[in-house]
Write a structure and sequence with these properties.
The complex is a heterodimer. By secondary structure, chain A is mostly helical. Helices cover 82% and strands 0% of the residues of chain A. The longest helix of chain A is centred in the first third of the chain and has 37 residues, at 20-56. The radius of gyration of chain A is 26 Å and the shape is elongated. Chain B is 68% helix and 4% strand. By secondary structure, chain B is mostly helical. Chain B contains 7 helices and 4 strands; from the N terminus they run E-E-E-E-H-H-H-H-H-H-H. In chain B, the strands form 2 sheets. Chain B has a two-stranded antiparallel sheet with strand order 1-4. The chains are: A mainly alpha, B mainly alpha. The interface between A and B is medium-sized, with 33 and 37 residues.
Chain lengths: 130, 253
């Protein structure tokens, strides 16, 4: 929408100006203004979208439970495979099931934004955890 | 196998072979699932082709829908993964369109919902994760594994934390695929169960027909909700793809 409007406007105001330089400055200024006003609206819009997702509740429940179950399933699967390959029968499953449980909790906390994302350690992690 | 006229909420997910085809012990039959995957690709491709074929400066309605979907994904990708992420635009856009069109096609009565099969969603999720892993390794080499090592963790705890992070990473394709699959499966079963109530209640005479109004209203409301879920799940799939690609492009910041 904005793209179709902009050439129209500059075309109208162009002949009235003295030089191309001036027009470019003006365009640049207006573009910056537009970006600034868009940036102020952006978080607003995102918040509303999240609010709409949370209002259903159902989507949130589906998301969190799938995160949690996936962690446990992968832990159990890894443990079972290690047991099969190494013949360490119950121990691999026990250890990796517990680790998978921890990973599931981590997934859930991460998807609700309580823990820093992957690879973001000390800079942001502890601050966000507090 | 139940007959189609009996109310069986699972019947709609049954896979039928249309063309039987075996290659060296592998069953490569063309099933109704394959048919609807082909239909999804054809519908999505044809829509985008016809919508953009005129390429007017002032877009027609169809063209502006195509442009909006482009800008929607482009902005999403740019927000999540930065300018560098735009090289993955074709992948993300194709995934989004495939999931969205497959979900919406599944909303037609008697149509097969491709995304309610976990193997389909799992393959889509594996495409994403393998792209992330291979691109990350190709671009950053072994530095990619910094993703699993959060900085500021004491040395003693490091093996434990790394193991948990690795499991958490491996669980991503599973949660990504399970979410899409479970949403579509649960939604379609609920819809079918409520429609089944209408049928069995209205077979019970006048009182039954009066009572059948309630599940009918519910089925109508659920259909609306299902359209929302179809779109939302395609959106969620695309957003998570963008986030994972961001990890491949900037591991360990």
């Amino acid at each position: 929408m904005a793209a179709s409007k902009r050439p129209d406007e500059t075309g109208k105001s162009g002949p009235g100006r003295q030089g191309g330089d001036h027009r470019d400055d003006d365009l640049e200024r207006r573009r910056r203004h537009l970006e600034a006003s868009l940036a102020t609206r952006q978080p607003d819009r995102q918040e509303r979208k999240e609010g709409a997702g949370g209002a259903t509740g159902y989507g949130q429940a589906m998301k969190l439970s799938s995160e949690f179950i996936a962690g446990i399933a992968v832990g159990a699967g890894l443990g079972w495979m290690i047991d099969r390959l190494a013949g360490s029968s119950p121990w691999g499953l026990i250890v990796f099931l517990l680790l998978g449980f921890a990973a599931g909790v981590l997934n859930v906390l991460r998807s609700v934004g309580k823990v820093a994302e992957f690879g973001q350690g000390s800079n942001q992690g502890p601050r966000r955890k507090d | 196998m139940a007959t189609p006229d009996k109310v069986d909420p699972i019947h709609q997910f049954h896979i039928n072979k249309i063309v039987d085809f075996h290659v060296g012990g592998l069953d490569l039959s063309f099933t109704n699932a394959s048919l609807f995957m082909v239909a999804t690709v054809v519908v999505a491709g044809a829509f985008l082709y016809f919508a953009t074929s005129s390429r007017a400066v002032i877009p027609s309605r169809l063209q502006s829908v195509a442009e909006m979907s482009y800008e929607f994904i482009a902005n999403m990708l740019r927000d999540a993964a930065g300018k560098q992420g735009m090289q993955f635009f074709p992948l993300v856009f194709s995934l989004f369109m495939f999931v969205l069109v497959a979900n919406l096609l599944g909303m037609f009565p008697y149509f097969f919902t491709v995304t309610s099969q976990i193997i389909v969603t799992f393959c889509l999720a594996m495409i994403v994760i393998l792209t992330v892993v291979f691109y990350g390794l190709y671009k950053h080499g072994l530095h990619f594994f910094n993703l699993f090592v959060p900085s500021g963790v004491p040395g003693i705890l490091l093996p434990l934390v790394v193991a948990i992070e690795v499991i958490s990473f491996l669980s991503r394709p599973i949660s990504l695929s399970v979410r899409l699959f479970a949403n579509m499966l649960a939604g379609h079963i609920t819809l079918k169960v409520f429609s089944g109530f209408v049928v069995s209640l209205s077979a019970m005479g006048t009182v039954g027909i009066a009572g059948a109004v309630l599940p009918l209203g519910m089925a109508v409301a659920l259909t609306g909700l299902e359209f929302l879920v179809s779109f939302l799940q395609a959106y969620v799939f695309a957003v998570l793809t963008c986030m994972y690609l961001n990890d491949a492009i900037h591991p360990g910041h």
